[in-house]
Amino acid sequence: MKIDLNCDLGESAGNDEVIMPHITSANIACGFHAGNAGIMRATVRLARRYGVNVGAHPGWNDRRNFGRVEMNIPADEVEAIIFEQIDTLAQIAKEEGVALTHVKPHGALYNQAATDRGLADAIARAVKRFSVDMILVGLAGSGLCEAGLEAGIKVAGEGFPDRAYNPDGTLMSRSKQGAVIESPEEVAMNAVKLIREGILFGERRVFVDTLCLHGDNKRAVENAILLREVLTKNGIEVMSLRGANATKQSPL
Length: 252
Fold this sequence. Notes:
Layout: E1 2-9, H1 16-19, E2 25-29, H2 37-50, E3 53-57, H3 75-95, E4 100-103, H4 107-115, H5 117-130, E5 135-139, H6 143-151, E6 154-159, H7 184-197, E7 199-201, E8 204-206, E9 210-214, H8 220-233, E10 237-238
Parallel strand pairs: 1-2, 1-9, 1-10, 2-3, 3-4, 4-5, 5-6, 6-9
Antiparallel strand pairs: 7-8
Helix pairs in contact: 2-3, 3-5, 4-5, 5-6, 7-8
């Protein structure tokens, strides 16, 4: 079995360099919900140093709320702001000799796109417009993954070992108790379960291509280190999206 490990970085959490050696894909904030040109460049350089794939992590233009408050914006504007963020990071990455491999929306934008097909289609269009070779990362089994597949681009279904799920396969709101799993041991074992058993999304069981470790989790570094150890012990190979499971096939 193979899995990609990704982390949301460039968000000034202060632990990017410590986490980077333990992941295979970095989702870098593009300046809207967090980050700036200097932070993007520094994070790209870290990823290059450790051989980690670089992806864009676009979000709502809402730094005050860290992009975690829902917004309602026309589809054409959504497409424009997603493309702008991807292009901004891509230009910096190009100057550093790095090519982007994927796009993963952030926060409320990500969660809204899981169930709002119009929003998901706008995101998929922006990604395809930038490059048909880009991988769109979305909640496994969600409308965002379906939108990417229908747009003709590769998608990677994502699971969250440090988050609790609702019965319908969506992520539990951070405002609810127990939504964020704090124990590194629980995170690691949850990761193995997600890889082996997938997620029950409605009436479908969907398997994951990549696992996310949140860089702003207070035990993010411990989670990353222990997770790698537990995956190895369970015979699960950690491999970047480019060489692992991203697909143009329909989710299981």
